[in-house]
Structures are given as structure tokens and as C-alpha cells.
Amino acid sequence: MAAAASAPPSIQTYRQYFADESRDPHSESYRPLLSKFWAENNPSTSQALYNLVSSADTSQASAFLFLRQDGNDAFFQVLHSLGTYPAVIGRPSPWDGKAYASVGGVVNGMITTVDLQPSAFEYSHGGLSENVPNTLARARELLTQSPDLEFLGPFLDNDAQITTTRTRQYIPLPFRYVNLFLDREVKVRKGFIDLSTLMEAQGDDVACAELRDWLLLAVTRGTPEGTPHLVQPAPSVPMADRRLLAHRLDITHRHLPGLRLPTDGSSHLDTLVGKLIHEQRLTRIEASDQANAAQAPKTVAKALGSEVVSTLLAIIGVSAEEDLPQFWRDVAQAGKRDRQALEQALLSTARDLGMADAAPVVTPDLVKRATGLQWAGLSVDNLSEGIQPFSIILPDYVGSEVGVEAQRLAKTYDIMNGTQTTASLKDAQTVNSGKAVIPKDFGEARAHLVALMMVWTVLLGDTHPFVCSFGQRGGRGPAAQSGGQARFLPHSPISILHPRGPTPYSGQAHSHQSGSAPSHHVLARQPSEPSHYRHDHACLFLFTSTRRIHRHS
């Protein structure tokens, strides 16, 4: 390793400093340093890396790249000039033995100092590997194909031209690339294109493999609507202290000798401390504003995805998510407590109907189908698909084998998604699909359909045409109160057919008889009729000729 050249007295900015690669202590090769950041084959611990970089010679600057979160955006940012505050015997301070770094350049004789924690060198995404494009060129190709795209992915295991990798939160950055990001807010798309292009030109896509992998993860989303897992909050700024400021300024002046204070610099230093306190006050105000923004109510689109919202708007027939039923806004705020949100909504609907004891048991499977819009049953022979009577677990089943299993699943789901626990993969595997339940008599059949009506009321709103039709024929509406029961299951054996439900593909409801019919059919099956009806994208639930309900007097 070549010795770094000392800075000439004229150097006054870090842009000048990093522009001269002769001062880079790793200019000959970054392999010895980057290899310690390799995430495979007996990798170094985050504490070991922290000790390594914080104990480096402060007469020579170093630089690290990380991805900073700013609201819903992400920016590349550089930390440089790392160093540990030295403990002095007989004069203890809260800074002793802690590592600090600088951000940006010098402005009015000041430079921002931030804390450096061992967590900066931990794995991103808990150490899990992620799918990324297999080369920098492939990632640029994908970005070029979508000019408005800020991030790529996430990628599936069977996607073409991908590889898997993992990395650390912070990564060493060679001097020749520092000025791409120093004193600048560079968004991910532009930063990736600029840095990856230069790396390939320099051959660093091979020589600096760890930086290459970090860069690929920096441009790859962690979730369909989210940002990369590498995104981190800005490092904290320590409270202003004259001794800490003097220590950091001393490091800065070693790198930038043109900034050295005059011999009698006491008053000037006091001025700098005052400015630093003012800057920190502004930083705290900005951090408070960001925290308030983060705590603002989530939109349905943010919680469930814009595609889900678009589908909901089409199904329910409204133009804005503010007009969706209250449940959807509640589930957006609930986060991982979505099961409780659906449970409370169903209980409220049941009370409004005067049937507080009839609300169905909310299983994880019902939550998944409801919020994922998995409402339609595409196979008439599978009673566990979609939201239909057979998948509704009634409270009367509590104590039975079916009810105990449903309550166990619901409780397990709540434990997995609570704020106080972390479930293992084994725990997660216990949450599986619920069983289909075949009603044994007319009373149970009607109870299932009433419970199903509660679900549709919550999901679609009580004024939706489908819900109104459903309620008139099987629920608690006027029709049900005046002879509705006779029309509900007029005789047996019968088939209950629901060919057209609230899906975005639905046109006018299909009618077995001549003329139009409402979207919910309760039809007597005659011997000449087929055993079941099939409709594209249409079957929400179906009793076939082999699954009959017999009314018992």
C-alpha cells in the first residue's frame, strides 16, 4: 500500500482533497479493505469492522457510502474523516472512545459531525440474501427501459438474469468516486447510473466486487411499494460541545491546512460553537417534522398498494379512496393488526343488524382473502376458494373441532403480528388455510349467508347494490322480514348459485331465467337443469347438486 501524500497548504475544501487520488491510502488496491466487508465465508462482525475503521489514522481521510432515507425518498450520502474521540486521564467526557465522522464539506468554517455506531456495519435486511440483476449493465438496461423508475424489482427467483447477494449498511468508497456525492443530494437512479458507469470504465465492477453488490442492492426494492432494504435514517448529530468541536476541527485542519485558524482563535471557536448549536436546533426541528409526517395517517394505497385501490374503486363504484367504506381506511391504519381491524368492523356491523352474537370468526385466511381481493372462487369443486358461505366460521362452532382450530389460527396470527413479539418460521408455518364447513341444515345455511352478508357489508359498504340485493334475499332487510325466509330456501334439494359477484370483471348478472336478474341468485334447481353453472371470473360461491341443503321442519 502506497503512503498517502500530505495535503498541500492551499487545500481548503474536501472536494479538492478527494479529487487527488494520491492521498487515498488505498489507491493501489481496495481489495485488502473491501475484503473485510465481504458478507460470505466467515465474515467479520460489525463490531470488528467498527473497531477497524474508527481506529484508522486520522491524518488520512477515508470515505463510506450509505443510502439515506428522507421521507419517501432515498439519497446517496458520504461519510468521511472517521475518528475516535480520545479519552484524557482526569478529564472524562461523554464522547470518550466514541467514533465520529463528517458529512459534506466545510461551510463558514464549520462541518457537520455525526455519530458512527457499530450498527452501520451490520448486514442489511437482517443478513438475508436478495435477488438483484446479475450485472451493473443489466441493471442500467432495466432502468433505461423505464425512464420514470427510481428503483428496480423486487425480483423473483425465476426472473431472468438475476443473482443473489447481501451486503453491509455502509461500504468503503474509493476517493475517485467521492465527489459524485459529496455536498450533493443524489437520488438513487442517477447515483446508480453515474457510479456504475464509472466503475465499469475503471474495472472496479470486478476489483471492487463488494461495492458492486452494495450498489445493486441500493437500486433494488425490498417490497413492491417500498424502498431498498439498504435505506437508513440519517446518522444522529451529537449535542454541541466545545471539546468535541475542537477535536473534529483539528482533524479537518489536518486534511485541509488552508483552513487553519489563527493562533488566537478562541473567539472564533466560540462563534463556531454558537453556529453549531443553531444548526442542531434546526436539525431537531426538521427531524421532528419528519417524525410527524411519518406518524400521519396512512393512505389505503400506501398500505395495500395502488393496484388494490384501483380495483376497489372500480368494484365499489367510487372515484377516490376517501369514499371507500370505513373498513379500508381502518385497515390502512392497523398495519399488521389487520385481523383485529376486520374483527372490529364485523362486530360493529353485527351490532347494527341486531345480531351481535352472529359475527363470524375472523381467521387469518379470511383477512388475507379480504384485503388481497381474493374474493372469487374460480373452481366450483373447491369450497375453500374465495369468500363464500363454506369458508365462514360461525361463532356457534366455537368449542367444536372447526371452531377451536379457527380460534387457534386467529390467536397465532395476532401473536405473529403483535408489536411485542417476533415469530419464527415454524410459528409462521402454523398459519394455514382454514377448513371448509358444510351447513347441516337450513338454520346453519341461513346463518352462514347472514355472516357472509356482514363480510360483504364491511368490504363494500351497506349501500352497494350487491349488498342491498344480498340483504333483501338472505339478510335482515325488508324482504327477509316479510316472507324472505320462504324465498331464501324455498324447497329442497336446491342449488344456491351466485354467478356474478363484486369483481372488476363483472358485467350484468347472468340469469338462468328469461330477462335480467339481480347479481345474487337463489334459484331452485329443477331436474332438467345442469348440476352447476360456470362463468368466467364469476363464481363467488356455489352449492352444487352434490352439496345439497335439506330443510328440516
What is the 3D form?
elongated
**Poorly predicted runs:** 419-435, 474-553
Helix-strand string: HHHEEEEEHEEHEHHHHHHHHHHHHHHHEE
| Overall helicity | 25-40%
Distance between the termini: 94 Å
Report the major sheet.
6 strands, antiparallel
Counting DSSP H or I runs of 4 or more residues, the number of helices is: 20
Share of residues in strands: 5-15%
Query: Which radius of gyration do the C-alpha atoms yield?
Result: 32 Å
Rounded mean pLDDT is 74
Strand count: 10
**What structural class results from the helix and strand content?**
alpha+beta
Based on the model shown, name its key terms.
alpha+beta; two-stranded antiparallel sheet
SSE arrangement:
Layout: H1 14-19, H2 31-34, H3 46-54, E1 63-70, E2 73-84, E3 99-107, E4 110-116, E5 130-133, H4 136-145, E6 162-165, E7 171-172, H5 175-178, E8 186-187, H6 188-202, H7 204-207, H8 209-218, H9 242-255, H10 266-294, H11 300-304, H12 306-316, H13 326-334, H14 338-352, H15 364-371, H16 401-416, H17 425-429, H18 442-460, H19 465-474, H20 478-488, E9 497-498, E10 541-542
Antiparallel strand pairs: 1-2, 1-7, 2-3, 2-8, 3-4, 5-6, 9-10
Helix pairs in contact: 4-6, 6-8, 13-14, 14-18, 18-19, 19-20
